[in-house]
Amino acid sequence: MRTGTLKQILLITDGCSNQGEDPIAMSALAKEQGVTVNVIGVMEQDVIDDQGLKEIEGIALAGGGVSQVVYSQQLSQTVQMVTRKAMTQTLQGVVNKELQQILGGAKTMEDLPPEKRGEIMEVVDELGEAVELEVLILVDTSASMKHKLPTVKEALLDLSLSLNARSGSNRFSVFVFPGKKTEVEKLLDWTPRLESLSSIFSKLTTGGITPTGPAIQEAISYFQKKRSLRSLLSRDDEQFFEESV
Amino acid sequence: MMMNNSLKSLCKVAPGTVIKGKWHKYEYTVIKELGFGANGIVYLARNANQQVALKMSDNAMSVTSEVNVLKAFAKVQGSALGPSLLDVDDWERSGTKISFYVMEFIKGPDLLHFIHQKGSDWMGVLFLQLLADLADLHKNGWVFGDLKPENLIVSGPPARIRCIDVGGTTLKGRAIKEFTEFFDRGYWGLGSRKADERYDLFAVGMIMLNTAYPKRFTKTTGGINQLLPMIKQKPELRKFELVINKALSGQYQSAEQMRMELLHVLQPASPNGAPRVKQAPVKTQGSVGSRTKSRQSQVRQKKKSGLFETCLIISAITFIYFLYIYMQVL
């Protein structure tokens, strides 16, 4: 069974978008193009308001992904859990599709007796271990996120530690919004390791608006851009830094 | 906090509710909630006058995955680390399907409470039990993963360490499925999250630390340089210092090796017991039952090494002989 590369956007934010396209619609657009959107809402002592919460859940639902709202201390655990859960969810979808072809009709794994599910689950587990994964991380750097950024950095390093324990290959890319001059700014090009984040993250400036929708839209197009020949050539290179940072 | 709100409400069941399986038709009456984790809620339930633990989740995947692990545990001979699996089924509740599985109800205080109540004399014994169980599990190709005191229950009497959550159990060589930061060597910067024996042994070392620091502590610099002083600061940990240190820095290749050294710490007076066996190669230890090291097994080991020696000498002589022939031909 070939699953291809799993593509995910991981959005880390602490509230509502306030500029540009509707983020939920953009998330649905991502799903249409085979990109899953996961959202993590980060709280401090404050609680995210209802509107923000609704948006976070809405984006994940439309993007076929997983959402979770956590206190920043729990961020590391959550980031890896959400990514993993979304991965399994997508793989389960792939396996279910295959099952439908074999069994016919609208049969999914849940329609099988529990005894039969075990073997299928093993297939999903195996795929999860070996599949290629691309995660584009979108970090909200609006003013209120300022003191949460060190935690975000830790969580992302932890994520790369978790995912790189798999046998399948991983590629990460990091974007922040709002950027210095544009709505979205690329921090780190596709790379298998996130360690280089440490130096870049400390120089980040925060502030301004929260253009979540445009950020997701830009992220989708970045998945496609990468298909160019140049990036194929530099597939196993170390990393490219943006000089603007 | 870590749980989806939808899951919480979906699997919330009032005491007295009768859960009937769709496939096997067994009925379970919910008595009370025992606890919840990232993947579901565990209830105490009754089935034909037998108390059982019933875990429910709206995610059939995670249920299936855990059931797979429990089945794998059942295959590990002689190990009683995990609960035994009794039933797997679906429950149809107002249109939605909730997957659940039923396991043996393990009753008792958790590890830290038990040691706190009964005194630190028990600490060594329980860790010896745990390491023996881990050795069995490792031999069958699995790594426990999410090892932590909350998941370790001391049942009995007679006191026996058991584990109630096996959700993190991972095949060797794969990425660890579930973990808790304090017990995770990746979090402390002391290794990867690839499942191997040393991953579990690191967690065992951290559990030993946890017995002296019930509130745990957070990472500052991380690494062994933060953890070592933490061991030294507590007088009750001093005698285990070497064992914990070696577990945390990944120096033990197997659970048995760690168990032998722990035994040596607890029973230093026996001059011809543990220490001598310790010097034997680890591999031969692996082939012998782990729970008791009887004299008989030592004799068997000696015999084995004798056979090995003979083979080595014969093959060496043959090799030299062929070399000689070869040179003659030239």
From TrEMBL, chain A:
Q: What domain of life does the UniProt record list for this protein's source?
A: Bacteria
Q: What is the lineage of its organism?
A: Bacteria, Bacillati, Bacillota, Bacilli, Bacillales
Q: What is this protein called?
A: Ca-activated chloride channel family protein
Q: Which residues form the VWFA domain?
A: 1-91, 134-245
Question: Would you indicate the residue range of the signal peptide?
Answer: none
TrEMBL record, chain B:
What SUPFAM superfamilies does the record point to? Protein kinase-like (PK-like) (SSF56112)
InterPro entries registered for this protein in UniProt = Kinase-like_dom_sf, Prot_kinase_dom, Protein_kinase_ATP_BS
GO MF annotations for this entry?
A: ATP binding; protein serine/threonine kinase activity
Q: Give the GO cellular component terms, alphabetically.
A: cytoplasm
Q: Where is this region: Disordered?
A: 271-300
Q: Which residues bind ATP?
A: 55
Which domain of life does this protein belong to?
Bacteria
Where are the membrane-spanning stretches? Answer: 306-327
Keywords assigned by UniProt, alphabetized: ATP-binding, Kinase, Membrane, Nucleotide-binding, Transferase, Transmembrane, Transmembrane helix
In this chain the Protein kinase domain maps to: 28-277
Question: Which protein, by its recorded name, is this?
Answer: Serine/threonine-protein kinase
The organism encoding this protein is Mesobacillus foraminis
